[in-house]
Every structure is written in C-alpha cells, then in structure tokens.
C-alpha cells in the first residue's frame, strides 16, 4: 500500500432494505414506470457502450442547456471527482476543502498524495469568504472543491461569493470544482449560462438526486474546451454502462416527467420542514438550518440518541459526530414515510421531555 493511502477507511454502505431510508438524500420514488423497457430488449450487451454514452450526453445537453461538446458523462459524480483529482494533482499539491462538505473531495485528494487544507464553515454554516480568500493567496491551491448547495448543511452560497473564489484561484492558477448535485432543488444555477466563460471552473452535476436515478450512477462534468480536452485524455473510454445510459437518456428526453417529479419532491420537502420545525420547538438547544436541498440538518446535543431511537423504529437517518458538529441529517420521503417519522419524533420528544 502506498504511504498516502495508509489510514484511509472504506466508504461502507450497509444494505438495509427493511428500513425507511431517510439518510442518503435519494429520491423517494422510482421513475422506472416512465421508461420503455421494451427498447432495452434490443440492447447489444456484447458491444461497448460508445453510442449509448454519446446519446446520453446529447440528451443531457438538450435537457440542461450546456453544449454537448462541453459535457463528460461519468459513473456518478464520484468517478468524475476521482478523474479530476487524477488529472490535476501532483504529490504535495495543495487542495482546499470546506468542513463540513462531501467527504469524497478530501479522500480523492489524499489518494493522489496532495496536501489537504480544511477550512471550517462559520457557526451558521455560511461561507467564511475572507478566510478562504486568504488561504488561497497564501497556500496557492491547485483545486478548491465546493458543493453548492452544501452537503450536509443545505446552505446555498451566492454567485458573488463563488465568483470571488474563481477570481482568487485564477491569480494562483487554481481551479474551482463546483459540485451542484442539489442545485435542481434550489433553482437554476447562477453559472448555467456562463460556465464556459471561465478558464478555471468545473461544474459537476448528477442524476442521482432530483432526477431520481441514483441506481444508474450517472454524473456529468461541464467545463470549457481546454479542460474537457485534457480530462478526456485520462477518462476511461467506456465508463458509463449501456443500460444506465439508455434509461437515463429516455428520462432526460421526457422533461415533463422530470419536472413533475421535482414538484412532488418539493412538496414533500416543505412537509418535512414543517414537521421538523414542530419537532425542534420541543427540544432545548436544537437548531434546524434552512435548506435548499431535499434534506435538513439539525444540530442538537442528543443527536446520537435520536438517531439510535429512530433506527430502532426502522427509520434510518444520517448522524454526524465530529469536531465540527453533533447533528442529524434527514432526507425527504413519501407521505407514508413522513407519517411514521412524525409518530416516532413525537414519541422521542415525549421521552425527552420526561428526562428534562
């Protein structure tokens, strides 16, 4: 094992299909009924997926408005993050990540032997812009990874803040990797029409969240011609499988289905927010943070106790217990799942009231 890899731990995911899953920010419905499965019977699984990948990129281009020549498809955003790290990073290059943020940014930087500089968000999870700008000037990072909206806080950073980061990175020949996995819940990206104007901006998108295609593992990288050409040199040629590409293209070519699906999710997100606001009013010191995603973060001292109780009630949520926070993250679900969650939260809050 390389020295840079020593100490890394696996990203383990335990399959628990008997649980109500409100922990992974997945969509709570399947769109498979909107797919013409008969077309898949004609799939030549003995052939490499070059044509289907090309059709997928064209479908995403038409759906998103980004030029097809400036899009690369990947086996989920995870693969694209890995490819970006492989392309840009030499050993001992500096990478800046925020804390908290998506853990795979740091992990891929470490794998490449880079030095990771973590910068904590403000107490209210807003962007510590001046501190980040100072670190960029002092450390001259090769890459800055940033999810917007942030995972796990749900916060949305402004276009002006991000543009300041792009400009500062340009001064030190650094690149901003802007992960917009949850942007569909927040509205249109402020960089949707201008990303190609920047020489040091990469946007990541995914079909796993608002589009409900997590099982297909479809991610998209958008950047200017030079970056696309460079990264294409190291991207595996057949990294998106034919079945995923064909199903993804079918759904992307039917935007009315995806728009209606997003609307259903937004209604459930509003229902969850109302429920959680009602819950935290009963819990001393608990704070629910505003979210522009399909999940909500609650900071509370008894975060682990709540997560354990819900787990025993067959409801799985995400629990965070590190230096930066004790918190739980809860994803939106179906009305039936919300009803069970509400009942469990009421039961726990009654137990909590008796303890205090």
Automatic annotation (TrEMBL):
Claim: Amino-acid biosynthesis is one of the keywords in the record: yes
KW Amino-acid biosynthesis (keyword) present: yes
Pfam families from the UniProt entry: Aminotran_1_2
Xref: InterPro entries: Aminotransferase_I/II_large, HisP_aminotrans, PyrdxlP-dep_Trfase, PyrdxlP-dep_Trfase_major, PyrdxlP-dep_Trfase_small
Enzyme Commission code: 2.6.1.9
GO molecular-function term, one example from the UniProt record: pyridoxal phosphate binding
Pathway linked to the protein: Amino-acid biosynthesis
Gene3D superfamilies referenced in this protein's UniProt entry, alphabetically: Aspartate Aminotransferase, domain 1 (3.90.1150.10), Type I PLP-dependent aspartate aminotransferase-like (Major domain) (3.40.640.10)
Domain Aminotransferase class I/classII large: 45-343
Co-factor(s): pyridoxal 5'-phosphate
Keywords in alphabetical order: Amino-acid biosynthesis, Aminotransferase, Histidine biosynthesis, Pyridoxal phosphate, Transferase
Enzyme's top EC category: transferase
GO biological process terms, semicolon-separated: L-histidine biosynthetic process
SUPFAM superfamilies the UniProt entry points to: PLP-dependent transferases
Assigned protein family: Belongs to the class-II pyridoxal-phosphate-dependent aminotransferase family. Histidinol-phosphate aminotransferase subfamily.
NCBIfam families registered for this protein in UniProt: hisC
Subunit structure: Homodimer.
Protein name, per record: Histidinol-phosphate transaminase
Native source organism of the sequence: Lederbergia citrisecunda
Lineage per the UniProt record: Bacteria, Bacillati, Bacillota, Bacilli, Bacillales
